[in-house]
Each structure stands twice: as C-alpha cells, then as structure tokens.
Design goal:
384 residues; 71% helix; single chain
Length: 384
C-alpha cells in the first residue's frame, strides 16, 4: 500500500486537470452551438417581423416557419405564426399550430391557457361553432374567462339560444364584467315571441314581466306587451301600456304612433289619443305622428301636413302631400313640396370618387381627396 500511494497521488494530479479541460471544452462547444442557434432563430424572427411590417405576409409566414424549425420549443413563435394564419383566413393551419402547442408537456400553465384561447378563436373564425363553444368553456377559471364568456354570449345570440344567452349574461354580471340588463330584457322578449308563436300566451306574459323587472326603462317589453294585449282583444289595457311607453321612451312611442292610433280607435278613445299625439307633434313634428293623427282626425290632416313641410321639409312629407287630393291643396302647397324635394335631392346631386368616396358638387379630373385621376364618374350620384 505504501508503493501505491505515490502513484495514486500522481493519478489524481493528472486526472483532475484532464477532467477540468474536458469539461471546459464541452462547455465551449455547447456555448458555441447555443450561440449559433440563438443567432439563427432571431435572424429568421426579425426577418419575418420586417416582412410583416412591409405587408409581405406570405414571405413573413415562411420566415416564421423557418424560425420555428430552428427553435421548435419557442412558444412565442408558434403564437405569432398561428395568429398570422388566422388573420389570413388559413384557419386549418392556425388550428394545427395551436393544437401542437397544447400537446407540449413542457408548456407553462399561462401559455397553455393562451393557446386554448387562440384555438377557440380559430374555431370561431372558421365557423366551427360547436368546437368553439367547447374550447371557450374550457377556459372557465382562467384569465381569459371573461373574454370566453363574451364569445359564448355571441354564440348563443347567433344560434338564437336565448335561455343560454341569459345564463351567460347573468354569469358575466355576477363577475362584474358590466351590466347586461338591457340585453337580458331583449332575450326575454325574444323568448316571449317564441312562446306566443307556440300559442303559450301565459308564458309570454310572464317573460315580458321578467323583462320589465330586469330593465324597467327598456322600451321593447312595453311595446310587445301593448301589441300582445291588442291581439288578445284588450285595447283598454293596451292603451295603458302605450301611455306608459310614451312616458318612458317617447322616441319609440312616436315610431309606433300608428299602432297606438289603431288601438285608440278600437278602445273608442280617439279624443284623448289625438290630444296626446298633438302634444308630441307640437314638440317634435314628424311623419309618423302625422300619419297617426290622420287616422284619428282626417279633417285636420292637411293643416298639420303644411306645418310639417315648413318645419321639416322631408321627402316623406312631400310624398304625403302628393298623395292627397289636389283640390285639398292650399296655395302654398306646390312651393312647399318643391322645397322639400329639392332639399332631399341635394345630397344626391354630387359627384363621388370611385376610389376614396370623396364627394364634391362639381366634377374633378383629379380627386382632391386621394389625388387619383379619372376616378370621378361622369354622372352624379342620383344618376348612377
């Protein structure tokens, strides 16, 4: 053992430097390879970014594919490539990229949720709504939960699944995303229409009551309630609904003034209805109010029509005058009708550039907007 000790010491003195040298060489080789790969991947990446900024999408995609091949573990390049495919409408390729990401075992939880969200968007854009719905539902509890639920709400509206839409809207409200009261009222109104089509008047009434409860200021539940009561042969109850609508939403009431007039005739309450409509007409003259009042009081129709032509010389009012018997026209009727038609025709008596949409009262050989030559047609807009 005494003879072996010097040899053991010599062996250790030789082996340790050799091991250090070999380790150093290996590290240099790995470092050199890493630097080479690092130089290659960013070069392809920046090349793709430059092409993308220059709107050369096809070449940009080729560059990104090259970058992914150099570094297949880089998730950001996969996301960029998938988004590019989706924007170009190549949804199948986008789906493959994002599904490949989801299959990676080393993907972080955040990137996995991000890939799931991107995959759901791919399905949505591709029109694969069943798959999109399943993909969005898989995002419950993730940072993308609110966006996913908004997408699910859109899908429910698209498929006219109003019960599902109500459920999703309530979840969004509970999460504090926003107030969906008006939307929920619309969903209940749609359900009420479906119930009425089935002949289930009772359910329709209950759904309208729910709509009013969730959005007391909404106009549509009152409109549908008044229309429903009219169809059921209850004009007096319908008049109460119309009166409430006139207080809550005068604009909606004015648009449907003709239905209100029909209801007043059925309820034999023409005097009160005429007074209501006349008060609104004095504040804001309009063709809808004029036609409604003509149903209730034909004798006063022409004076009100002339007032409307002075206050609001619209083409609809001029047509109303032209439809009236000529012997009922006052002296100023012809001039009023001409002024109304001239005012309505004025926006159409222009030339419009076919390239940028710039409009002008006279013709230009070179468009002042986009500087294009011969982009103005020879005819005015009303002649096209």
């Amino acid at each position: 053992m005494e003879l072996d000790s010097p040899w053991l010491l010599i062996s250790l003195l030789v082996a340790l430097p050799a091991a250090f040298l070999l380790g150093w060489l290996a590290s240099r080789i790995d470092l050199r390879q890493w630097r080479r790969a690092d130089r290659q991947a960013p070069k392809a990446y920046f090349k793709g970014l430059n092409l993308l900024l220059n709107e050369q999408t096809d070449k940009a995609i080729d560059a990104f594919i090259e970058a992914v091949q150099h570094d297949p573990e880089t998730s950001e390049l996969h996301f960029a490539l998938g988004n590019l495919f989706r924007r170009r409408g190549e949804f199948e390729r986008a789906v493959r990229v994002h599904q490949h990401l989801l299959q990676r075992a080393d993907l972080s939880a955040g990137d996995r949720e991000r890939a799931q969200h991107a995959l759901a968007q791919d399905f949505m854009k591709a029109g694969l709504f069943d798959r999109a719905e399943a993909a969005f539902r898989a995002l419950d509890g993730s940072p993308f939960e609110t966006e996913a639920r908004l997408a699910l709400l859109s899908l429910a509206e698209r498929s006219r699944d109003w019960a599902a839409a109500v459920d999703v809207a309530l979840l969004l409200e509970k999460a504090g995303a926003a107030s969906f009261a008006t939307r929920i009222a619309h969903y209940r109104c749609e359900q009420a229409l479906e119930a009425e089509q089935r002949g289930d008047t009772r359910s329709a009434s209950e759904l309208l009551a729910q709509a009013l409860a969730v959005a007391p200021q909404a106009a549509r539940p009152l409109v549908q309630r008044a229309q429903q009561l009219t169809r059921m042969g209850e004009p007096n109850a319908a008049m109460a609904a119309w009166s409430e609508l006139s207080q809550r939403d005068p604009a909606s009431f004015v648009r449907l003034a003709s239905e209100y007039a029909d209801c007043a005739l059925a309820a034999r309450r023409t005097d009160a209805a005429t007074q209501t409509l006349a008060g609104l007409f004095a504040l804001q003259p309009g063709i809808d109010l004029l036609r409604a009042m003509a149903k209730l009081d034909s004798a006063g129709a022409m004076p009100r029509l002339m007032d409307l032509l002075r206050e609001q010389p619209s083409l609809s009012a001029a047509i109303e005058l032209l439809d009236a018997p000529r012997q009922t026209w006052p002296e100023s009727a012809h001039q009023s009708a001409r002024d109304a038609m001239a005012r309505a025709a004025r926006p159409l008596q222009r030339y419009r550039c076919a390239a940028c949409g710039f409009e002008a009262q006279r013709h230009f050989w070179q468009c002042p907007g986009c500087l294009g030559w011969d982009s103005f047609p020879q005819q005015r807009m009303e002649e096209l």
